[in-house]
Give the backbone structure.
Amino acid sequence: MSDAELRKAIRVLRERADDARHRGREEDANGIERTIRTYQEEMAQRL
């Protein structure tokens, strides 16, 4: 995945996590945030 694709994926996933929290789906939001952290770690390794 390119850097731009990773940034876009992180942005979309943040929106989904926020939406899940607003709907009371805390467990789903936490799972999405774990994926976000994985993508952020991948980005950090590329620097």
Notes: Helices lie at 3-22, 26-46. The mean pLDDT is 96. The chain has two helices and no strands.
